[in-house]
Amino acid sequence: MERREESKAVKNALKGAGIDVLQVKHATGTAWGWLHIKLARPLELACEAHGSLQAYDRKDCDACCAFTQAMHVIDRRAIEVALQVTGRRSNPNDCYDGNIAVHFDA
Q1: What are phi and psi of 9, to 5 degrees?
Q2: Is the torsion defined by CA of 17, 66, 71, 64 positive or negative?
Q3: Phi and psi based region of residue 39 (left: phi greater than 0; alpha: psi -120 to 50; beta: remaining)
Q4: What angle do CA 52, 58, 61 make, to 5 degrees?
Q5: Between 85 and 67, where is the model more confident?
Q6: Which of 13, 10, 5 is nearest to 98 (CA)?
Q7: Nearest Cα to 8, choosing from 71, 82, 75, 78?
Q8: How many Cα atoms within 13 Å fall on the side-chain side of residue 17?
Q9: 35-39 and 21-26 strand pairing
């Protein structure tokens, strides 16, 4: 599968899985083989007291911790969908995710 086709297939699969994907693209240069996925930040899960773009990882706030956990779950699910579509392999022992990076929009 060519890069453009791979990007389109992953984006469609993520949308089909109910993941709010903004962009899927390939890296360039020395990171040529990497696939970058940009997702919308799940603001509906954000902590209203501390905001969603700054201190969302506060350990003393249950809502902030839940928001961070929700982002980790979405990240993991996005990688699983992308691995399935692309046929790339992941090695959980060394955190290798098939050269797939997930980012949340700021």
Answers
A1: -65, -40
A2: positive
A3: beta
A4: 90
A5: 85
A6: 10
A7: 82
A8: 20
A9: antiparallel
Whether 97 shows a pLDDT value over 80: the answer reads no
Structural tokens at position 72: 């980790």
Question: The whole model's pTM is what?
Answer: 0.84
The position carrying tokens 């090695």 is: 91
State the Cα–Cα distance between residues 19 and 36, nearest whole angstrom. 15
What angle in degrees, to the nearest 10, is found between the helix axes of 62-86 and 3-16?
A: 130
**pLDDT at residue 19 in the model:** 95
Distance CA 37, CA 30 (A): 18
Confirm if 68 and 57 have CB atoms less than 8 A apart: yes
| pLDDT tens, position by position, 7-45 | 999 999 999 999 999 999 999 888 888 999 999 888 777
pLDDT of 92 > 70? The answer is: no
Query: Could you tell me the two tokens for 40?
Result: 């919308």
Bridge partners, 103 (sequence order): 38
Strands (E), the chain: 21-26, 35-39, 100-104
